[in-house]
Design a protein that fits this description.
Structural class: alpha/beta
Helix content: 40-55%
Low-confidence stretches: 1-8, 446-452
Strand order of the largest sheet: 2-3-4-1-5
Radius of gyration: 32 Å
Distance between the termini: 88 Å
CATH topology of one domain: Rossmann fold
Number of helices: 21
Shape: elongated
Strand content: 5-15%
Mean pLDDT: 86
Largest sheet: 5 strands, parallel
CATH class of one domain: Alpha Beta
Length: 452
């Protein structure tokens, strides 16, 4: 590196955002992820001894993935080649691989290939790395916010250790902010910044466990706050609120968050918790989720978890679906909220779900006998002549519009798939069925799936 390049790098480091300047160089300064890099942990020992396996760092934004990669670079004697999957391509990878081969041959030096946002590489680009990770030409460190099980090809993932980074805790974000306030070389120490307690608490909350968001908002607030007469830069709560604007929602409509939040919504409604249900609904809608996706799940929930306990639930869910089509976002958000609260507070029954699941198993593994002749419709003289419809009893001709007859194939006679619960409208259904069962001379409550 010549003098001019050194000066350029130093200038860039000075002008870099606070989050980049405050990036620690050693494990002693690294905050969080004690389960991975705490004193005595296997990964830390491996890094400190230079025995670095290929790894995939999976964690939310601002949890320290890139920082950890740079600490590995500073700790090891290996050459460090960082690239971003956002801008790099196969040609860049080939150049790094060629240089790594020469470096290994001439100096016996290993190369660490760091791919930031590796989930943005397509299959062909990941395939290009695979053979050189396998033969040890490079040690791969990939960083991703997405579940590597879905975003990294299986052959590459099987040759790496997937390590999960946790969101930073509030106390850890607090430590990072306070270090930035005190550091006079890389931080804001020279500005003599004082952050009000309520402003600090708000900054921690609004950062959503992302250290990068916290530091960059802090820097904006500090640079736009003039010093007082005593040369102290006092940052009040309104300034932090203005710098942050609103909470950065962590959400990816095509990733794991998408499935985690819809699962939380479904299970909160199933648990009859309208407050939690509304919260998870809001998390999805405010993050930009397609309301049609949400309402499809509400319709499914109405049948799966409420069912016949409240048949009106399906009507409400379908009305919400119509509202989504008719008015769209953001106006349809209250229609979705109304349907969500209705479903959460409705009586619950999964009798339909269980009954249909048993039917599916019966069809999959049963004999699938033909329809009994008396239930078939004799639409031609030939059909009538061979017995179609013979002996069929028309229910409306009998008292209470009920008559006993065989409606299942012979091998399934007496089986019961649908047994109502004692919730909501199903109380009336079970009473009606019991009355019919008594007329048949059968037990009032036949054992489910067994002969009566």
């Amino acid at each position: 590196m010549d003098m001019f390049e050194q000066q350029y790098r130093e200038k860039m480091e000075q002008e870099a955002p606070l989050a980049a300047r405050m990036r620690p160089d050693t494990f002693d300064d690294f905050v969080g992820q004690e389960h991975l890099v705490g004193e005595g942990r296997v990964l830390r020992k491996a890094i400190e001894t230079g025995q670095i396996p290929s790894i995939i760092l999976w964690g939310p934004p601002g949890s320290g993935k890139t920082t950890l990669a740079f600490i590995i670079a500073n700790t090891t004697a290996s050459h460090f080649s960082p690239i971003s999957a956002v801008s790099a391509g196969v040609a860049d990878l080939r150049q790094i691989i060629d240089e790594a081969k020469k470096r290994r041959k001439m100096y016996n030096q290993k190369t660490i290939l760091f791919i930031d946002e590796i989930h943005r590489f397509n299959k062909a680009q990941q395939d290009a790395v695979l053979p050189f990770v396998e033969d040890g030409t490079v040690t791969l460190i990939g960083a991703t916010t997405e579940n590597p099980s879905f975003e990294v090809i299986s052959p590459l993932l099987s040759r790496c250790r997937a390590l999960t980074l946790n969101p930073l805790k509030d106390d850890e974000i607090r430590i990072i902010i306070q270090r930035a306030l005190k550091d006079k070389v890389r931080g804001l120490g020279k500005l003599n910044v004082e952050l009000a307690n309520d402003a600090l608490s708000h900054l921690i909350t609004m950062s959503n466990n992302d250290a990068r968001i916290a530091l960059n908002a802090l820097e904006m607030a500090a640079l736009t706050t003039p010093p007082d007469t005593d040369r102290k830069c006092r940052i009040p709560l309104p300034t932090i609120e203005d710098a942050v604007q609103h909470r950065a929602l962590l959400y990816d409509k095509a990733g794991e968050q998408h499935y985690d939040l819809i699962s939380a919504l479904h299970k909160s409604m199933r648990g009859s918790d309208p407050d939690a249900s509304l919260y998870w609904l809001g998390r999805m809608l405010e993050a930009g989720e397609d309301p049609l996706y949400i309402v499809r799940r509400l319709v499914r929930f109405a049948s799966e978890d409420v069912g016949m306990a409240d048949p009106q639930a399906l009507v409400v869910a379908m009305a919400a679906q119509q509202a989504v089509h008719f008015v769209g976002m953001p106006e349809c958000n209250l229609a979705l909220a109304e349907a969500t609260v209705y479903l959460a507070t409705a009586p619950k029954s999964n009798s339909l779900y269980k009954a249909y699941s048993e039917i599916q198993e019966e069809i999959k593994h049963g004999s699938n006998e033909p329809v009994p002749l008396h239930l078939r419709n004799p639409v031609t003289p030939l059909m009538k002549g061979i017995g179609y419809g013979k002996g069929y009893k028309y229910a409306h001709d009998y008292p209470e519009h009920f008559v006993e007859q065989k409606n299942l194939p012979d091998s399934l006679q007496g089986k019961h798939y649908y047994t109502p619960s004692d919730q909501g409208y199903e109380k009336r259904v079970i009473a009606r069925l019991k009355a019919w069962w008594r007329k048949k001379g059968k037990p009032a409550e036949p054992e489910k799936g067994k002969e009566g």
